[in-house]
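Operator note (shift B, R.M.): manual run for Beta-galactosidase requested after the automated queue skipped it. Running by hand, logging everything below so the morning shift can see what happened. Input copied straight from the record, untouched. If output looks odd, do not overwrite the archive copy; leave it for review.
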Amino acid sequence: MNRKLYHGACFYPELWDESVLEEDIRMMKETGINVVRIGEFAWSKMEPEEGEIDVGFFVNVIKKLYDNQIETVMCTPTPTPPIWLTHGHPERLHVNEKGETMGHGSRQHVCTNHPYFRERARLITEHIAKEIGGLPGLAGWQLDNEFKCHVTECMCETCKTLWHKWLKERYQSIDRLNEAWGTDIWSETYQRFDQVPQPGLTPFLHNSSLRTMYQLFSMEKIAEFACEQAAVIRSYSDAPITHNSSVMFGVNNEELFRGLDFASFDTYATQENSAAFLFNCDLWRNIKKGRAFWIMETSPSYSASLESYALPHENGYLKAEAVSSYALGGAAFCYWLWRQQRAGSEQPHGAVLSAWGEPDVGYRNVLEVERARKEIENIMLATVPVQAETAVVYSDRAKVLLKTEPHRRLHYRALITEFYERFLSLGIHRDVILEGSPLDGYKLLFTPFIHYLPPEFIEKASAFTENGGIWIAGPLTGGRTEHHTIHTDCGLGDLEKCAGVKTLFTYPMDERNTIGKAFGVKAPLSLWSAVFESGHAEAVGIIEKGAAPGKAFITEHKRGKGKIVMLGSMPAGEAGDIMLKKLISHYAEEAGVTQGTDATPGTIVAPRRGPDGIVWVVVNMDGKGGEVTLPEDGTDLISGERSANRLKLTPYEYRVIQFPK
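Run finished. Output pasted below as returned.
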């Protein structure tokens, strides 16, 4: 996987004739594309009639690409089942929460849990794996495409049956389910598992447990489907397997990637939202720790569909994206797509080449990426990303609970990205990790917006503090059980018991009428909040105005060699941003975090380690140019020049600085 840095594109040779294929390969070689992804939407090409499977076309394409030094990621074509599978069979189609049955067309229109679909998916996957699994030039496999991107939980009869089976396996008896969910409220008590509904249309809101558990059920089933496909492929191929996922989709990425070999994701973050791009890199680097991630899809300039479009990147930004992703642990930077599609719902989407075969508006930027890839490749292959001392926990289960209980349209991805931006602005090197990730090597741990913290995580994080780490929990953390109910022993359950505090109240704070003071700053407080009696802890943040004046919204409690800090409310506005940054900086200093950089806004540093010491990859992301203070004199590995003190970068420039051991 790490023999080279990959520069790739999604490629659809089945849509074009032989002469276009020849021209595409010629242009790919000129452009520097050394890997392509194929096949994910080609089921009808491979099996035009049920049982008539022939993948010879794709075998020949892979061979032709390999003859031209271009490797291939082969996909299973299961997101777009052909018409013969669905026509006249509405029972095989996806049903949304309104009870509407999807029609054939677009993609993801089928229920991935239907047994007939599963069997046909297994057969087509097996056939592809047999024919292609041993071919030279096969860089890897991608399962399906963007699971649960366009659809969420399916509500068909197949899923209802599986749902009841899942509940029975989980709860064993209906009485245990009723007790866990609190179904005596509103006469929701069930007598049998087969009476438990799917969370479709109701006059008001569903029971929180029902809605949350159905989402978790759906996530488990899609991970099961991925595992089935991977098992079939591994019978015939040693090439590594991935899926192109996202934090946007209705999947549990920790669960999904547990059975896969390397992590990959798709991102179409706009230039103005570069923090989301960097957040993804810091997260996916840790989903399969120790293995480089792939960006399987990003736009060479702009994304678009029949109904919407994003504006083109500024010239130079694509290069900054690519270099930062390689530096932060990526092995591949790939575009959707190579040649613009002449038809379909995404025909306006930007590409490397236009539908008529000329360079598209982003082409010159693709060439810049290739020049940069060649320039940094040997350095990236000889070094690895430095593990951060600071970790922020990301949780797809937290995303589920917040979708069930969004309060006033809270969105988990937006909340966690905005929280993450503060580490960027402070120049703190950070990892975004999963609930199940080990905490070895970290000094500072943040768990924001995680309604339910499993006992195993609390135990692990408590041990982390015992050994000297500082754990900042909150806001919106710990207030729900695994069944999405409220604790009845204390406000924040086991978290509260570890933190040495007593939760007095939990209620929504209005930033117009609530003021808190901490770290010498007064700021409005917002979101659903927890108010503490400090007890064995020290009150660090005090509410000065609002419904609970004089009470604590930030506490810290010594535990072993470290401490647990409770952040009960979200500081808001400009003053709130200052307060949060002061909180982060204060505990980073106290924890002994040394991985910090003094860089101007919009310029990032990605530290790497190699046999000759530490390497900094410095990239300007905002197009305004920037500066960073070097910790000591270093050597620019590209120019060979010595660099000292304050390093200056022009718009979208990158520099690679080696420091002595």
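Quick read of the result: The longest strand covers residues 521-533. The two ends are 28 Å apart (CA to CA).
Leaving this for review. - R.M.
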